[in-house]
Design a protein that fits this description.
34% strand; 9 strands; 173 residues; 4 helices; 29% helix; single chain; 4-stranded antiparallel β-sheet; alpha+beta
């Protein structure tokens, strides 16, 4: 009888200790992975707008044929923060045939492109940057697009709720 109580006490302590340990080491809620989407038959995934999601996108990018990275020249903090949605267009390099067109939703876009030579055009606020991209079977490729640090990001960002509220308050006066 006494050993039974001791066993239950030890089990309760072990369970509470494990729960406390896991609670201290795991985040309160795990962020979901960005969804895989399809544009013109090409699967792609966008993300990286926060630190954890950026780490996830960097971790899985070698498993995708192409990585398109978007950023702002300047400090690493500026490069890491690319909140705007840019239009990404992938075309066959020699024929100009459109392969994929989508809006990015963060600084990383991973795409499952077939092997070939492509031109990637990324447009943001009327400024289009173009890079060649060659995809080989089984080897990840990457194109990096950096907007100048003096580019007016405020003109391409959606208005923030607090900014809208301030504008409405100012207009009402």
């Amino acid at each position: 009888m006494k050993s039974m109580r001791l066993s239950r006490s030890l089990a309760a302590i072990a369970t509470c200790g494990t729960t406390a340990f896991l609670g201290a080491t795991l985040p309160a809620h795990a962020a979901p992975n960005p969804p895989i989407q399809t544009a013109q038959g090409v699967e792609y995934m966008c993300g990286g707008s926060n630190k954890d999601e950026a780490a996830f996108m960097q971790m899985v990018s070698p498993r995708w044929a192409a990585t398109i990275e978007l950023g702002i020249n300047g400090s690493p903090a500026q490069r890491a923060s690319f909140p705007a949605r840019a239009k990404v267009e992938v075309r066959e390099r020699y024929t100009g045939r459109a392969i994929m067109e989508a809006l990015s939703q963060g600084p990383y876009m991973l795409a499952r492109l077939d092997p070939g030579a492509y031109e990637v055009n990324v447009t943001l606020g009327g400024l289009t940057l173009t890079q060649p991209l060659v995809v080989f079977a089984g080897i990840p490729s990457k194109a990096t697009f950096m907007w100048p640090s003096n580019f007016d990001m405020a003109s391409v960002l959606p208005p923030q709720p607090e900014t809208q509220a301030m504008a409405q308050t100012s207009a009402a006066r």
